[in-house]
Every structure is written in structure tokens, then in C-alpha cells.
Write a structure and sequence with these properties.
The protein contains 8 helices and 7 strands, in the order βαβααβααβααβββα. By secondary structure, it is α/β, with parallel strands linked by helices. The protein has a single domain, classed as Rossmann fold (3-Layer(aba) Sandwich). Strands 2-1-3-4-5 form a 5-stranded parallel sheet, with helices on both faces. The chain has a two-stranded antiparallel ribbon with strand order 6-7. A hairpin with a 5-residue loop joins strand 6 and strand 7. Helix 1 packs parallel to helix 2, helix 3 packs across helix 5 and helix 4 crosses helix 7. The longest helix has 13 residues. The chain is globular, with a radius of gyration of 15 Å. It starts with 5 loop residues before the first strand and ends in a 6-residue tail after the last helix.
């Protein structure tokens, strides 16, 4: 059950970002609280307004809210979550997380998070299969993170192979399994 679970949803720059709107809807329907954090490039694929409307919370993307000095505290965000889900997780963000790079609010929140982290990658098949990316997935798993494997199918490039972000229903089911202690976590 996800009722009253606090989910930090990280949305990265990927054509699969449109699926994050569906994921937010399903999480809210399951009675979770959702705080969306977007990378700068994510807003080129889906608007913060869409995700803010669906989550009923302002979408965060920068450390500083405005020129008054009001800031979004990544430590507080990391402590707030019962789970952090990155969907879609781009190769760029996966590399940052795997190597401890911290140049945006999402990666800083990840490094501050004490909750379980679930990574749902989305990228073209050659990127997904690249040894560097596969190594980054192994690093993330070694840190205790959960990788929600990308699916196989037609990709935005027109190629067919593994790289499609898991469907929102699958991601919600992974979270349900995790919180209920039943089934394979991935």
C-alpha cells in the first residue's frame, strides 16, 4: 500500500518523461504524496506545470527558488522521502549518481536520501548496452539502489531493443511489492 508514503520522483531529460505524468497520476491515485524534482533538461520534454498540477505540489528544479535567497533544501528533501524514484533516469543522471556528482538539485537530493532509491532508466539501446552505463548500473546496485530494468521495444530513435522506460504500472507495482514486503524487488 502506498497510502501516505512520501515519494520523491526525479524526472530527467528523456523522451520518456511524458510517462512521468502517468506515474504521478497513479501514485496519487494510490494515495501517495509525490514531490517531483526535475533536471533542467527534463523541462524540455514535459512541463513543470503538468507535473505540479498532477502532484498537487510545486515542482522543484533549482537549489534557489528566487533571488530572495529562499532555497530548496536537498537534505530536508532527502529525509522527507519514504522512497525516491528516478523515472525516467537518463544515462547522464545515472552516471552522476553512480559517481557521486552533485551539480543539480536532483543529484544532491539523491546523495542526501536515506530512503530506498529506485532507478527506471530510459535511453537508446546502444547507450543502455554501453559498458560504461552497465557499469554505472552495477555501481548503483552496489550502493543498495534498485534498478527497474528498461523494457524491450521500439525506441524513439526508430531502433528496436532494450531501453524503454518501464511502464508506470510496473513502477508502481515495484513500490507496492517493496512496501508490502512481497515479491521480487528487482
Amino acid at each position: 500500500m502506498l497510502r501516505h508514503k512520501r515519494i520523491i520522483l526525479g524526472v530527467c531529460g528523456s523522451i520518456a518523461a511524458y510517462k512521468s505524468a502517468l506515474l504521478v497520476r497513479q501514485l496519487i491515485k494510490a494515495e501517495a504524496e509525490v514531490q517531483v524534482i526535475m533536471t533542467a533538461s527534463a523541462s524540455e520534454f514535459i512541463t513543470p506545470l503538468t507535473l505540479a498540477t498532477l502532484s498537487k505540489r510545486p515542482v522543484l528544479s533549482q537549489f534557489v527558488k528566487d533571488d530572495t535567497g529562499v532555497w530548496h533544501n536537498h537534505v530536508e528533501l532527502g529525509l522527507w522521502g519514504d522512497a525516491m524514484v528516478l523515472a525516467p533516469a537518463s544515462a547522464n543522471t545515472v552516471a552522476k549518481l553512480a559517481n557521486g556528482l552533485c551539480d543539480n538539485l536532483l543529484s544532491a537530493t539523491y546523495l542526501s536520501a536515506r530512503c530506498p532509491v529506485f532507478v527506471a532508466p530510459a535511453m537508446d539501446l546502444d547507450m543502455y548496452q554501453h559498458p560504461a552505463v552497465q557499469n554505472n548500473f552495477r555501481k548503483l546496485q552496489a550502493y543498495g539502489n534498485h534498478i527497474i530494468e528498461a523494457g524491450h521495444g521500439e525506441l524513439a530513435s526508430g531502433l528496436v531493443g532494450q531501453g524503454r522506460m518501464a511502464e508506470p504500472e510496473e513502477i508502481v507495482q515495484v513500490l507496492l511489492n517493496f512496501f508490502s514486503g512481497v515479491g521480487k524487488i528487482v
